[in-house]
Write a structure and sequence with these properties.
Mean pLDDT: 84
Number of strands: 22
Length: 783
């Protein structure tokens, strides 16, 4: 609606309504830096003011850039979000103001950070940013914003005319600010809604995928259960019946109507009011494919499945007694966020990027009425899991809701763990805040922790309980009287515990994936350490951790953590990287990381000896490693000497008969020859030098050689009764040989590896002592 001629544009302004000018503004706002050209004489001074060189220009001018201030970057980010939501009218630049009229005083102009308007709503947003994550009182800002709501509403009506009665959404958008509970309550009391970094990231992501249709997701969040202008008394012909004992309606509607009332509570938003949240974030590729399909005349014969969150009106016309269904007229909901999409989100939102002419096509809908959220999620999983389209880590995530209260102990523990991780991920300012990767959202250096990895650690180390005798649940040290109490106790304990680690070196924690602390490997190790420290404290004090308040319990073990904390506080990145340099990639990483931490604790507490530490320390001993490496090398040399020495006794050396007759496999000979050619001519050795352990095994076990070499090479593994050919030890020896041959792989001998090498070494040389190749040749002479 254009501004009334009697109330000129200056009541609100400057405003953008032209699409081309809005795009130019968006291009500027997307940049996180200011750019400027400087002459050579000005570069040094600019650099001291925070500018950095981008590139040197051809005309003796340098292009410099400087980060925009935090508040400006946040304003731009939120403005760009509303642009992506395709609001047709928005503020221009950072000097947008609203004329505030006051009784008995001169009017004043109030600067507003972000302003946007469509036919039904107006967004008025205040943006506050902090350089680092921390608490900050917003009481004064909230009170000032609340006091301006009335005058701003008056100005909006004055500018657009009295006939325009929008729903105004008052927003506080913050970045790196931990909201206090009193401030949250003040904002709620004044009907001021909050968007933190986490929600902003989510909205930007769905806006990138859905464009204009994402506006209804956004509005549904803030205008839940409020009426949508233009959708009142919209009726469709429908049938009503029951499926699985649940009431359903089946009818035909249009994307134009459904997009406004539907809502998908994605895992990535994790709205506590809507738990369980089960949907995946929408795939942009699938949307594009579906949109192209629709444009080419395609249609979907299958239903979109939704759940009406409130009772709906249905006027019966007729019954069908045979099928027990009722024909009648259904009045669709006319409120935002009143129909949750259970299945078919891509089919529905595939219409989002299409022209207006496609929005009145028919869509078949199957709607339930006030179905329980857990039942919604079960239907979603049933449909999608059978089609193999639900990723495993989403099912891991869902365990926190679908298995909550399960009578099966392992499911019960997994459910508590999954929900705990999600709760901590939503805890603004907490150590896990926005650290967990979410389905459909790109992982980042910061959001790099995964639910399966952390859940596995919580389950394996018994903090939330354990399973004994197959189906008996035994509470763990962080457990409460029931599952909800366990969730609360575990969150409080883990938050306090991880906060000690985080605060010891905030810079390292903030590195996320690029650091050594806040990673899957690091967190799994710290969870295991917590379990071991509680067990140690429990054994030394004869106390019961379940009887203590969580914060009190962590306070008791905090002194044991002092060697780790002191190291983190004093260490730089290189020192920390060196500390964990022995931690391998893959599944062995958390174990090695955990023992590095245990070793630090043991440096202060001599009797701290958790299971496996002694073996690990033996594995890490340079003397032991060198001894094992030497034994493997000696074995490899002596095995070749035994093999080819035996052939020389048996076949002689003339014309290389020992090689030609002793090695019957052509491919082994060819491989050895090819390897010999890689050396300089005058440095080449005899061909048997180039035979590796696996080919050596093939030669030994060949039918013409086996009986001759069997007395030396036939070594059963410890505890085995023996097979016809006991040569598995050569395969394992070959694997262990690679550890010393490739130290950059960060692999280490384990305690049982060291024992095994010693066993094979002793057995081989014992057998070799009693073996005479001449006697063996006489008793096994080839025919």
């Amino acid at each position: 609606m254009p501004p009334s001629p009697s109330h000129p544009q200056e009541v609100l302004g400057p405003l953008l309504t032209d699409a081309r000018r809005m795009k130019r503004e968006a291009v500027k706002r997307r940049k996180v830096v200011d750019e400027k050209a400087f002459g050579p004489e000005d570069v040094e001074g600019a650099i001291s003011d925070g500018w950095r060189v981008q590139k040197n220009g051809r005309k003796k001018k340098a292009k410099l850039a400087r980060d925009k201030p935090g508040d400006e970057r946040l304003e731009n980010k939120f403005w760009y979000l509303l642009f992506k939501l395709q609001y047709p009218e928005m503020n221009e630049g950072r000097k947008f103001t609203i004329l505030i009229e006051r009784k008995g005083a001169e009017p004043l102009r109030k600067q507003v950070d972000v302003f946007a308007k469509d036919d039904e709503t107006v967004i008025v947003a205040e943006c506050k940013s902090s350089k680092e994550i921390g608490r900050r009182s917003l009481q004064k800002d909230i009170e000032e914003f609340a006091n301006l709501k009335g005058p701003i509403s008056t100005a909006i009506k004055k500018h657009y005319g009295r006939l325009f009665t929008p729903k105004i959404i008052w927003l506080f958008v913050t970045e790196n600010i931990v909201w206090s509970q009193p401030d949250r309550e003040r904002a709620a009391g004044e009907n001021i809604r909050i968007i933190t970094d986490r929600e902003l990231r989510y909205y930007i992501q769905i806006a990138e995928h859905l464009g204009k249709a994402a506006r209804f997701q956004f509005l549904g969040e803030f205008l839940k259960d409020q009426q949508i202008p233009g959708l009142a008394n919209r009726q469709v012909q429908s049938i009503r019946g029951k499926l699985g004992g649940r009431k359903f309606y089946c009818f035909v509607s249009t994307p134009r109507s459904l997009l406004k009332i539907c809502f998908v509570n994605h895992r990535s938003l994790n709205d506590p009011d809507g738990a369980p949240t089960y949907q995946r974030l929408i795939s942009r590729t699938r949307l594009r494919e579906i949109a192209d399909f629709i444009k080419k005349g395609g249609f979907f014969p299958n239903n979109i499945i939704v759940n009406f969150t409130k009772p709906v009106r249905f006027d019966k016309v007729a019954n069908d007694n045979e099928t027990n269904v009722v024909f009648g007229t259904l009045t669709l909901p006319d409120k935002y966020r009143s129909a949750w999409v259970i299945d078919g989100q891509h089919r529905l939102y595939g219409y989002a990027p299409l022209d207006d002419r496609f929005l009145d096509q028919n869509i078949v809908v199957l709607a339930f009425e006030q179905m329980e959220k857990v039942d919604e999620a079960n239907i979603f999983v049933t449909i999608n899991h059978e089609q193999r389209s639900v990723p495993k880590h989403l099912l891991d995530d869902l365990e926190g809701e679908l298995k909550w209260g399960s009578a099966i102990p392992n499911e019960r523990i997994g459910a508590i763990a999954a929900r705990l991780i999600n709760v901590m991920n939503s805890d603004v300012g907490g150590p896990f805040y926005s650290r967990i990767t979410q389905q459909g959202l790109r992982s980042t250096n910061k959001a790099c922790l995964t639910i399966p990895a952390i859940k596995d650690a919580l389950r394996r180390f018994g903090l939330l309980g354990r399973t004994v005798l197959k189906n008996t649940y035994v509470p763990g040290p962080l457990c409460g009287d029931n599952d909800s109490a366990t969730l609360d106790r575990a969150q409080r304990a883990l938050t306090r515990y991880l906060e000690i680690i985080r605060r010891a070196n905030m810079g390292q924690w903030e590195l996320g994936r690029e650091g050594e602390t806040c990673t899957n490997v690091g967190i799994q190790a710290y969870v295991q350490l917590l379990a071991s420290l509680i067990k140690y404290w429990e054994g030394n004090t004869a106390s019961d951790p379940i009887q203590m308040e969580p914060e009190e319990l962590i306070g008791e073990i905090e002194e044991f953590m002092s060697p780790i904390v002191e190291f983190l506080e004093s260490a730089d990145e290189k020192m920390i990287e060196s500390e964990f340099s022995s931690v391998p990639f893959g599944s062995g990483g958390p174990r090695a990381y955990y023992f590095v931490l245990c070793k630090r604790v043991k440096s202060k507490i001599a009797d701290f000896e958790p299971d496996g530490l002694a073996d690990w320390e033996a594995e890490q001993s340079q003397e032991t490693i060198e001894a094992a490496t030497k034994q493997i090398r000696d074995l490899e040399i002596e095995m070749k000497n035994t093999l080819f020495g035996g052939f020389k006794v048996r076949y002689g050396e003339e014309n290389n008969a020992y090689w030609e007759r002793g090695v019957p496999m052509k491919e082994v000979k060819t491989k050895a020859y090819d390897r010999s050619q890689e050396a300089e001519f005058d440095e080449r050795l005899s061909l048997e030098t180039y035979v590796d352990l696996i080919d050596l095994k093939k030669i030994v076990e060949h039918k013409q050689n086996w009986e001759f070499f069997k007395p030396v090479f036939n070594i059963p593994d410890p505890g085995e009764k023996g097979l016809a050919k006991n040569l598995k030890w050569i395969d394992r020896l070959n694997e262990l040989r690679r550890i010393s041959a490739h130290p950059s792989d960060k692999r280490h001998y384990k305690a049982d590896d060291l024992e095994y090498v010693q066993f094979i070494h002793d057995e081989f040389f014992k057998r070799l002592e009693s073996w005479d190749p001449v006697e063996a040749d006489q008793s096994n002479a080839p025919s």
